[in-house]
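Record pair follows.
FIRST:
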Amino acid sequence: MSITQCFVFILLQIPGFSLIENKVTAFQETSGVRRAIVSISVKDCESNNYVININGDKAINSASTMKLISTATALEILGQNFTYSTELSYSGKIINNELNGNLYMSSNGDPSFGSSRWGSSHQKVLAEVMSSVKSVGINKVSGSIILMNTKFEDFDVSDTWAWNDLGNYYGATPYLFNFNENKFSVYFSAGGSVDEPASIISMNPQSDYWNIINKVTTGPAGSGDNVYIYSTPLSNTILMKGTIPLRSKNFSVRGSIPNPPLVFGELLKEELAKNGISVEGKVLLQSYQSAQLNMLYKASSKSLTELLKSCNYSSINLLADAFVKQVGYKLSGSYTYESGIIETKNFWKNRGVNVDALNMKDGSGLSPSGTITANVMCDILGEMKRSSLFETFTATIPQLGISGTVSRIGDGRNENMFVKSGSIDATRAYAGYFKTSTGKWMTFMIGVNRYDSDSSRKVNAFLREILVDLSKL
């Protein structure tokens, strides 16, 4: 027996590992789970050996644990100090307070521009852009407002997302120009009784070009948000269906903006008009320009590290998908899911990871057909442990009992366990790192895939129990 084999044999004799293996094996045979896949891998980052491996080579839905791979890849390729920027420029000359040219808005894909999550808003950035135009004495624009870097190919979504996800805020897809996290809020007022129509009070932001079809009705008191919003990129039609609770007033539901660059351009034109600055031309989308530009305004994002932390702590799909597309944009010049996924897989393949079982469909894990094996997750996270940016990376991952979506798991604070949760229909998963009491770093993934619909509470309780068990090793 080799030294490595001896080490693994001894490690597997530790009661904690054996106890966890027994629990997982027994849980697989319980009612509501027998037809599911219960998968767990735990890998020692130093020896590179799996110390627990039950169904670790079986493909399961990643859900939001996929964000760990997206954020790790972005950190490695873009660098921790990378920042996005959004700019306003103009072409032509200003003569007698009239700009004989166009206004240009451009961005390199900033998903945080105009977001309240970072102390801004779409109203604030519109006011800032308007003020920059006013500051150089412009009160009339003879040309158009042009949104740059918006080729048709950039308006893609993951082909495998569910139709009822696309129009909702968590299904907002990133483009090279984004604002307000590409979402809008619609405010409803319930009818006087159950099944009566619910009326729309207001929407913010809103486009005059949207065709709103409101089929939302009134549900029982306390029934919560059961509204689904349906729309597609480049479409002006937005369908709203479902129910809001009886006696609700000003009930807020969030949807995804179908065409963020065009909507922002329209809002900017309105903002300029309100402040006495007329624009004779239209709002246009354009992928290139040949004129010399003069910059008027520039907004820079927070550092990539801060954005990664928000992504993993709050599980923001838009950010994770933006990171994957940005990786593709940097390495191949194409801002699409396909290019980002190809470059992500190539990156880890070149680092020695067998990525055949990494079936990415997006960067967020929203796709119900995006799968991974627990072994591959551990392999990638284990390779990330060897990165000089490992400590930076773990600082972006929630800690058990302390932060993010795992803040209420366990019986106290655990500063040595970093966990990303994931949940979509019939799938629940956790992945990340923990340090044992002897100082060894382990990476892990545990998930239950395709369990019976009435077993959700049971699955959640089991997975939380396993997380606590791991944290005490």
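SECOND:
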Amino acid sequence: MHSETLGRRQHSHVFLGPRHDENERRTWAVVALTAVTMVAEIVGGTVLGSMALVADGWHMATHAGALGMAALAYRFARRHAEDERFGFGTGKFGDLAAYSSAMILGVVALLVGYESVARLYNPVSIGFDQAIAIAVLGLGVNLASAWLLREDPMHGHHAEALDGPHAHGHRHRHDHNLRAAYAHVLADALTSVLAIAALLAGRFFGWVWMDPVMGLVGAVIIAHWAVGLMRASGAVLLDTVPCERLAAQVKGRLEQGTDRVADLHLWRLGPGHLGVVAAIVSDLPRPPDAYKARLAGVAGLSHVTIEVHAGPAAGVR
């Protein structure tokens, strides 16, 4: 049996995204913006009696925590990128932070939903004018945060932000940590719009019940994003195959002549970095370098290990 890793036998295990440092700086800037606005909305909503505003504030609070974990994940991953204790590098710390924030997000969704239902049965007076002003401020901060976390349109970031059913292909190239942060501020912007709509309805039409209803809608949105984020980040943490078509492409390139892939593992190591372990059985086995050459040019393969096993007909003439 022959076994060898693509590239040098002793090589770097730094699997960070190409814009890791830039994304870290932008995330810290959004953390500061979100934290300040979150305090204003929670305090203002509580004092003025607006459940929709409180829901938006707590939504921003969860995002501030999530964004903080994202920023810390960037820093930790960078500082420990070459730490040999991490066998495949620190590229997954962003996904770990995203999964953790998703769990917190789910709990807050339940709390906001519970409080909104309570307000439906026990309405409170609302200072509409002041609450509307704070909600508009929150929306402005959300839009500014989304602008800070924007990615080059050439990377197709916005189109794939929600991980829709057709957003496959080269999804592994994106920074899930940044995408999670971007998704958080987009959700914040939407709940801010809901809060403003509820407050305007109460202010001009007397529909006070709209405030807790919009709080419930906000809770559903929070829960939706929590589940989506948990699925996306959890899939990476569990080393699921990031792209079936890419796996088929790798297998197709390796299987030539009598060469057959007996075992294939493809998983994500970090933004834009994939790991591959392939076991090949062949009646005419060749050195691992020959099989590595077949994978040349496949985007994203950063750590590839090839095992070659002789088939039953090997050596028979």
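COMMENT: Residues 83 and 89 are 7 Å apart (CA to CA).
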